[in-house]
From TrEMBL, chain A:
Protein name as annotated: Spore germination protein
GO CC, one annotated term: membrane
InterPro entries: Spore_Ger, UPF0353/GerABKA_families
UniProt KW keywords: Membrane, Transmembrane, Transmembrane helix
Protein family according to the UniProt entry: Belongs to the GerABKA family.
Classification via PANTHER family: SPORE GERMINATION PROTEIN
Transmembrane segments: 294-318, 386-405, 417-445
GO biological process: spore germination
Lineage: Bacteria, Bacillati, Bacillota, Bacilli, Bacillales
Xref: Pfam families: GerA
UniProtKB/TrEMBL annotation, chain B:
Domain of life: Bacteria
UniProt GO cellular component terms: membrane
InterPro entries referenced in this protein's UniProt entry, alphabetically: Spore_GerAB
NCBIfam families for this protein: 2A0309
Family under the similarity heading: Belongs to the amino acid-polyamine-organocation (APC) superfamily. Spore germination protein (SGP) (TC 2.A.3.9) family.
Protein name per the record: Endospore germination permease
Signal peptide: none
Principal location class: membrane
Species this chain originates from: Shimazuella alba
Record keywords: Germination, Membrane, Transmembrane, Transmembrane helix, Transport
GO biological process, one term: spore germination
Length: 497, 367
């Protein structure tokens, strides 16, 4: 029986590099899958050393490998030890010396090149990554009229650069973590050291470290694993693809997560009202921005409860609306054979299907779907007597109201809440609607985002936060960071009192 | 916020007490007062307000000696193990009774005004969902919900005020036409509407800034008194004497008078929204009963007890306790028990605690 210590020693010695180049290369073949893009280039340097350069041709920048690595090695360098010395004679930024196979494997898979040298027990790793990437484009989900037009891309470095261009503060701290046992992904935690509440950083770091999964491919996946309550339909963190809105959140005292190969940033902690802010609000006139915010709030309620209200009035309390309106509603409903709830659900489902269909299709076909759906549902269904005119209006207004909510996740949540609301108000009328809203808000109030009450600013009430929540006061008046974030430096304008 | 013991902010404390007070009473108070003291009923509210404020002061004054303990912690210490437990059980029963009555009342109100054809059991089933959801999460949730309730129902005040437009203020004249005796007689009637300040017995230890405890309770009492006076005076100036004498819900009749060009029968919407306020008096009492029973058994029994209570409530709706006569007679019982527990008990307890502490001090000096 081997003792644990012996096993550990054996394991460690297995992980170390050998001195012989051939043995090392054999070992490499065992460890790294031998795909067609694995390049093992063995040659003699100018100083007559036997070396092998190993890399994945698909993951490296070929120009830098050929011109900046192979050429100096073959024709210029006398000794490989010079590579690490002060007179670094190759034009590559980062060179590291490693002894361990694990580091080598990781480096190769990340697109770095590894140089094995005969008769030494170390290898050198060169930063030569280069992979297919998309150019910076206008954000698709959160387009803006006045703000910046650059959106995040799939490369971590570029995303970091985009944020740094907004926040050039030396207190911007960036901490690196990695998750995923099988496919490792790099995660950066960004925060402004003297602003953020340290509790948030500790909390989110702890939650990231708890994630134990073989691969986390996107930030949305990570979000679900680190959020406070994964069983709710409401997003508790903001996923944004706009560097300016992320920078603004950083400056307010929030923590930002970036993840390699995800064109998004995750912002935490969030409050419900923060989901109704858009970066454009701050660059437009404050009166207009206030109007838009109130409009969003209104549309939040309309989108959740208008069909439910309509159903409850039609099926329970038709005495609520004036007689003339009642008559016209009655006339329009006279041909419809279904009860209002069925009619509403039919229409809602039709419109949800249209929406989903349009979303996944390429643009030109997507438009066709819109036209066909609009004509079929708007005109034919009414004429055929399947739905009433008023219901078409109600459903369309509801759908449009749903689109006004600036955040996609939030708008989806509201979209779904509509259905239970409709069902409950078809059973209990307007009492059902009011109890439904109570349950919904009780749920919202019970939620937390990174320990902060999700409903902060209206429950618990923080009147000072209202300046930037339901309305947008002139920037001059917004002297403090959001109270709910309990930032170390609460004042962001003027002098600390 | 972060794993610390939750503490109530000042506004949460005020809104929690205020929203507990506003509840069942407001809807019927003008009628109840009118029957006894005619159009002078609103003066009785002012007297009621003064009395509740004095009692509130005594409550805070008693608790100040032990700032971290609720009434339920103090009872066994002040009254000894057995007597303390008996009083504790009485308090639990009282809180439970108040909560149950408000619940039954809400079901009855909805049944009468909004959903006459729906089975009350179904209405009860609907109502226990939010009650369970909020009470389950304890004080942090309840206090936040109280704030939310205030915000979401703020539109009700202007709606009620609209009715002042065509009021005949002469109806209030002459003031004290039958002397002050009827006014004093009708004062106990207002007690029911002020019930809720005794919540301070359990809220005070959780309050963040204890110096403001009395100020908060005074503010809550005053807000309640203003709402009550507003409703009463408006009913007197808008509704006829016959209406006031026979209509049980004058406040709702008042709202019935409001018409908009796009909306008739405003009171249906008003009542449907009012249930959130009614629940805000059910939930604090329920919470009070739950922490009281946790004190009784020396461990948290909220989890098993809460569903049992709610099931009993719904089960109770199978029996014909929902009706006009039961609602009226149980209200009298609640009013009486409120007088005992919320008004009489604090005074007795205050005197007792003074005497008790004095004896203790003496004992210590001697010992």
């Amino acid at each position: 029986m081997e003792t644990f210590q012996q096993q550990e020693d054996k394991k460690n010695s297995d992980e170390l590099l050998y001195t012989d180049l051939q043995v090392n290369l054999e070992q490499l073949q065992k460890r790294v899958s031998n795909g067609p893009d694995l390049i093992v280039r063995s040659f003699q340097t100018k100083g007559k050393e036997n070396v092998s350069l190993v890399y994945y041709s698909s993951l490296v920048d070929k120009v830098s490998v050929n011109d900046h690595l192979l050429r100096p090695l073959m024709y210029q360098l006398d000794n490989t030890s010079e590579l690490l010395g002060p007179n670094l004679s190759i034009p590559i930024g980062k060179v590291t010396k490693v002894f361990d196979w694990n580091d080598i494997e990781k480096a190769i898979f990340q697109g770095q090149s590894v140089l094995f040298i005969d008769q030494t027990s170390h290898a050198l790793i060169f930063c030569t990554q280069g992979w297919p990437q998309r150019g910076i484009q206008e954000p698709q989900n959160e387009s803006s009229l006045k703000g910046g037009h650059q959106g995040f891309v799939e490369t971590l470095e570029i995303n970091l650069a985009l944020i740094r261009r907004y926040v050039s503060d030396d207190n911007l701290v960036i901490k690196e973590h990695s998750i995923g046992d099988r496919a490792e992904s790099k995660i950066l935690i960004l925060y402004i050291d003297d602003v953020v509440n340290p509790v948030f950083v500790q909390e989110i770091t702890a939650r990231i470290q708890k994630v134990n999964k073989d691969a986390v491919l996107d930030l949305g996946e990570l979000e679900e694993m680190i959020e406070d309550n994964p069983y709710t339909i409401f997003p508790q963190f903001l996923i944004s693809e706009r560097p300016d809105s992320v920078a603004s959140n950083l400056l307010q005292g929030r923590v930002v997560l970036l993840m390699d190969h995800s064109p998004n940033a995750l912002v935490a902690p969030m409050t419900l009202t923060a989901f109704f802010q858009s970066q454009d609000d701050y660059s437009s006139r404050w009166i207009v921005a206030t109007f838009l915010r109130l409009l969003r709030l209104l549309s939040f309620f309309i989108s959740m409860s208008l069909p439910a209200l309509y159903i409850s009035i039609i099926s329970f309390h038709y005495e609520l609306i004036p007689l003339d309106l009642m008559l016209s509603v009655g006339e329009s409903r006279s041909k419809v054979p279904f009860p209002p709830i069925l009619e509403a659900i039919l229409m809602e489902i039709a419109i949800e299907m249209l929406r989903e269909a349009g979303l996944r299709l390429p643009n030109p076909i997507g438009q066709t779907v819109g036209v066909v759906g609009g004509i079929v549902i708007g005109e034919a269904a009414v004429q055929a007597g399947i739905v009433s005119n008023i219901m078409v209006i109600v459903v369309s207004v509801t759908a449009i109201a749903g689109f006004i909510i600036p955040n996609y996740d939030m708008s989806n949540a509201v979209r779904l809440v509509r259905f239970p609301m409709m069902i409950i108000s078809s059973l209990f009328g307007i009492v059902g609607l009011s109890v439904g809203l109570m349950v919904l808000f009780a749920h919202l109030i019970s939620l937390k985002s990174l320990g902060v009450p999700f409903s902060s600013s209206f429950a618990p009430i923080h009147l000072s936060d209202w300046k930037d929540n339901f309305i947008r006061t002139p920037l001059k008046a917004m002297k403090k960071r959001p109270f709910s974030l309990k930032a170390q430096q609460s004042r962001r304008q003027g002098k600390e009192d | 916020m972060f794993n610390k013991k939750f503490s109530l902010s000042f506004s949460q404390y005020v809104f929690l007490i205020y929203k507990t007070q506003i509840g069942v009473g407001v809807l019927t108070l003008p009628h109840d007062l009118f029957v006894i003291s005619g159009s002078d009923g609103w003066i009785a509210i002012i007297i009621g307000w003064m009395i509740s404020t004095i009692v509130s002061f005594l409550i805070i004054n008693t608790l100040e000696k032990n700032p971290d303990e609720t009434l339920f912690d103090l009872l066994p210490r002040y009254f000894g193990k057995w007597l303390g437990k008996i009083i504790l059980v009485c308090w639990i029963l009282y809180a439970l009774f108040a909560a149950s009555y408000s619940f039954m009342y809400t079901v009855y109100l909805i049944k009468v005004w909004v959903l006459p054809n729906t089975n009350p059991v179904l209405i009860g089933l609907l109502f226990i969902i939010p009650i369970y959801q909020i009470t389950r999460l304890g004080l942090p949730m309840i206090s936040r919900y109280a704030e939310f309730t205030f915000l979401i129902t703020i539109w009700m005040y202007p709606i009620i005020l609209i009715t002042a437009q065509e009021g005949i203020w002469l109806n209030l004249m002459p003031i004290a036409r039958d002397g002050f005796l009827p006014i004093l007689k009708s004062t106990p009637v207002t007690a029911l509407s002020f019930l809720g300040f005794e919540m301070a017995f359990v809220l005070y230890p959780r309050l963040q800034n204890k110096k403001k405890a009395f100020k908060g309770i005074l503010l809550a009492n005053t807000m309640t008194a203003i709402v009550l006076i507003m409703v009463t005076v408006l009913s007197y100036i808008r509704l006829s004497e016959t209406e006031l004498a026979f209509a049980v819900w004058p406040t709702l009749d008042l709202i019935k008078l409001v018409h908009f060009p796009f909306l008739e029968r405003l009171e249906i919407i008003f009542i449907s929204a009012y249930i959130i306020i009614l629940f805000m008096s059910v939930i604090p009492y329920l919470h009070m009963a739950l922490i009281g029973s946790s004190n009784l058994f020396q461990r948290s029994i909220k989890k098993p007890l809460l569903p049992v209570i709610l099931t009993i409530w719904v089960g109770g709706l199978f029996f014909p306790i929902i009706g006009f006569q039961p609602v009226i007679s149980i209200k009298k019982m609640l009013s009486t028990s409120g007088l005992i527990f919320a008004f009489l008990f604090p005074v007795v307890f205050w005197i007792y605690s003074k005497v008790f502490l004095a004896i203790c001090k003496k004992g210590q000096v001697k010992g």
